[in-house]
Each structure stands twice: as C-alpha cells, then as structure tokens.
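Readers of this paper often ask what the protein records in our data store actually look like. An entry from our holdings is shown next, in its original layout:
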Amino acid sequence: MATSLDNVKEPIVATPEARQAFEEAALKALEKFGAVRSEKNPWGLTVVVDRCNLHATVLAIRDELGLDMLMDVVGIDYLGFKDYVGPRFAVEYVFKSVYEPAKRMMVKVLVEEADLKVPTISDLYAIANWQEREVYDQYGVIFEGHPDLRRILNHVEFVGHPLRKDYPAHRRQWLSTNDYLYPTLEKRLESKGYRILERPEEINPSEEEYLQGSIKK
C-alpha cells in the first residue's frame, strides 16, 4: 500500500565539486560585466562589480545562472576597518537558488561617500524594495529608480543614519509628530481596486508621552 511518504525525495546536498563548478560558471558568465572575484568566503563566491554594471549583472544572475532568491541586501561601512583601503561604503547582495543549493553567491558594489548612489534592483527582485529601503534608512545609500525610497525602520523625522560607524550610539532625538502610515496603506489598497469609505482621525500623543525615553533638544 502506497503512503504519502513514498514520493518524498532525498534532499539535494551541495557537494564541494558542485559548488566549484557553479563558481567557475558564474565567473565566466559575469566576466563581461567586469565582475572580479573578491576575498575568500566559505559561504560561497563573492564578486565585486562597478555600480554601472550592477543591474545587468543581477539580471544575468537571475536569468542565466538561475539564482531565484535574493536573500538580503546589506550595507557596509568600512570606517575604522584595519588596513582597509578603498571607498568607505559598500552594498552587498546575497543570492541563492531555492532548489539547487550549490548555487549561491554574493555581489558587492563599492560606493564613495561623496556619491552614495547605486541603481535599484527592485524591478528584478520584488523583495529588494524593502531591503533597499532598510539600507537607505540605516546607511543613507540612495537607490536610484526605487519606486518608494523612504525610511522603513526609523521615524520619518529621524536625522542621520544610525548604522554608520560615526553615528553617536547614545544620541537620542526629539520626534514631534506621528509617523502616520495610513496614506501609504490607502494608496496600496486603492491601487488594488478598493475604495476608502472612512478615514480614521490621526491621534496625536501629548508632549509628555513623547518625552518618555527621549530628550528634547
């Protein structure tokens, strides 16, 4: 008698040989974009590309190499790194294949502090929308072409970018208004065909409530 377990397949294991084969194929596929292998990383291949080639590189990673998952977009501030020479900031993208574990890699873009801009890839991976907003919020990187680039973790009135190495860790800021989220939610609902029948009133906490845990400048 057949059971539901009869069709369960053994998990695919990424062998060292399979990972090496993927890394060689990836380097060959991305060399036309000027991708250069970075430092050794036990997790997988890391390449550095110029920001002007980022979008084309990521498109090839998705469509030619089959990495269908963008796991993360990470900001890096190299300020204070021992023996580091190069642009202060970097943005790193982490990709993998859902069904082929040997396929995984990272792409790094180095960015000068005076021109902190990289192109968005939110049109290629939808999850990048929120991930790029987080890097913008915490590091100040501008993702050009992003459809809705605004803070996602910190208050709308927050000044600065708290994951930068030179941000004062103990600084506290006075925020004087609600971070009102209804307009964004309403816009999304209306784009899906819903009609807003009634809008809630904005609630304004008292100054005493704002002062709890804060310092007024």
User: Anything to note?
Assistant: The two ends are 75 Å apart (CA to CA). Residues 168-216 form one domain. DSSP finds five helices and seven strands in the chain. Confidence is low (pLDDT under 50) at residues 209-217.
